[in-house]
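A reminder from the course coordinator: this example appears on the midterm review sheet, so study it carefully.

Given structure:
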């Protein structure tokens, strides 16, 4: 194995462990905070609000992350950001509404550093022939995080209608330790030279201020190009669906009391099924990258869109409109609601997300290699803006309105991605 591929594997394992902690906590945060508020009436922390704050600060910080990274490099940016994930996990051991929201803001800033660094490092370890393979393998390793944490949660939450303090502290302690293990892997990343003209120009700036200003200007110029504005519609949808499957969907199932005798334990299974879809999709597109690249990225994105539409329709039939808020005995069109159908939807949500995100990574790392820092920062900016908006409205909009928003935005985003992909195809044919 060449050095670049080894670095991709280390990057993937590092993110897998860090996000075993964070993605698992995102999936159960609403449930955990609901149980804390029942034990401590002075605690007023709200799960959707916490997640909205994370993605709001993530969005705002994405404009500054390229400037930070231009001074420190992608490795330092990734590690500094990853440390904020550990701090966020620890905050749950000391329940405080203020601490929760402050930690949410800090991890939002850290997430921008982590993901901008990750996208740039991935691009530096890849070329036009390996970017699809590397994106798929990284994505598969990252989404393995959905298995381990949620499997642990499933066993810890079994037969529990209320998550007691002892169980909460055990889950949070274990997840924190796993996040620390991820940072150990990330510390093993080695320096990779830039393979892009724009990044080399950025690195030639003599002062830290010059680095930062140049990075910010280059991201701004890229954002107003026609192709990037169209891609922003697709990026926006990835944020909406991310917030839905990572925070709203699992909570909605846990609050639907008629779906099982102890619906809280199903929340862990939902995370596992989402992870199975993510890993299958990422692994499939990583192993068969040469064949999928031949036919273009658009058929894969369209396939992901179809899977998501099917999952949204089945969720509409299966879960009640009031499911995102609190325990409810309401039903939808199926009586009783089907746990099996919910788990199938979870798998489709994960697989569809893998279809879309691996192709977004492939496009940004392949087509925007000359400004990878700016491209990945803009992707995460639009994605996190959408996720913040989604978590804010999730606190008061019913499930059916949320599904309607996902259907409309998914359709628009998919059309926009296809237009850009076909434009790049025509451009490459002319160059050949």
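Designed residues:
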């Amino acid at each position: 194995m060449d050095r670049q591929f080894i670095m991709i594997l280390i990057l993937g394992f590092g993110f897998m462990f860090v996000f075993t902690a964070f993605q698992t906590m995102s999936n159960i945060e609403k449930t955990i905070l609901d149980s804390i508020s029942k034990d401590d009436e002075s605690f007023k922390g709200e799960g959707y609000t916490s997640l909205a704050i994370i993605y709001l600060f993530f969005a705002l910080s994405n404009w500054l992350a390229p400037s930070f990274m231009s001074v420190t490099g992608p490795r330092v940016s990734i590690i500094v950001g990853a440390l904020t994930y550990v701090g966020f996990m620890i905050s749950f051991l000391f329940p405080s509404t203020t601490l929760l929201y402050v930690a949410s803001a800090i991890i939002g800033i850290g997430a921008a550093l982590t993901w901008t660094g990750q996208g740039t490092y991935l691009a530096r370890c890849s070329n036009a022939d390996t970017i699809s393979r590397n994106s798929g393998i990284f994505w598969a390793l990252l989404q393995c995080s959905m298995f381990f944490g949620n499997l642990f949660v499933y066993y810890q939450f079994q037969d529990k209608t209320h998550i007691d303090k002892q169980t909460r502290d055990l889950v949070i302690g274990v997840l924190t330790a796993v996040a620390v293990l991820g940072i150990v892997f990330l510390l093993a990343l080695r320096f990779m030279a830039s393979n892009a003209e724009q990044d080399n120009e950025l690195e030639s700036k003599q002062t830290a201020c010059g680095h930062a200003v140049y990075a910010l200007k280059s991201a701004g110029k890229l954002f107003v190009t026609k192709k990037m504005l169209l891609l922003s519609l697709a990026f926006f949808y990835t944020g909406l669906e991310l917030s839905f499957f990572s925070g709203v969907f699992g909570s909605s199932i846990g609050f639907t009391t008629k779906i099982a005798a102890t619906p809280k334990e199903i929340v862990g299974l939902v995370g596992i099924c989402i992870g199975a879809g993510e890993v299958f999709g990422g692994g499939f597109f990583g192993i068969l990258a040469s064949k999928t690249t031949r036919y273009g990225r658009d058929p894969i994105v369209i396939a992901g869109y179809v899977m998501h539409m099917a999952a949204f329709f089945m969720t509409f039939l299966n879960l009640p409109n009031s499911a995102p808020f609190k325990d409810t005995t309401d039903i939808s069109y199926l009586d009783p609601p089907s746990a099996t159908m919910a788990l199938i939807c979870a798998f489709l949500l994960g697989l569809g997300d893998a279809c879309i995100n691996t192709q977004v990574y492939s496009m940004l790392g392949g087509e925007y290699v000359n400004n990878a820092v700016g491209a990945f920062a803009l992707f995460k900016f639009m994605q996190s803006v959408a996720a913040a908006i989604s978590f804010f409205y999730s606190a008061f909009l019913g499930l059916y309105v949320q599904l309607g928003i996902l259907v409309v935005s998914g359709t628009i985003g998919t059309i926009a991605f296809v237009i850009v992909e076909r434009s790049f195809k025509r451009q490459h044919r002319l160059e050949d």
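The chain is about 80% helix and 0% strand. Confidence is low (pLDDT under 50) at residues 200-211.
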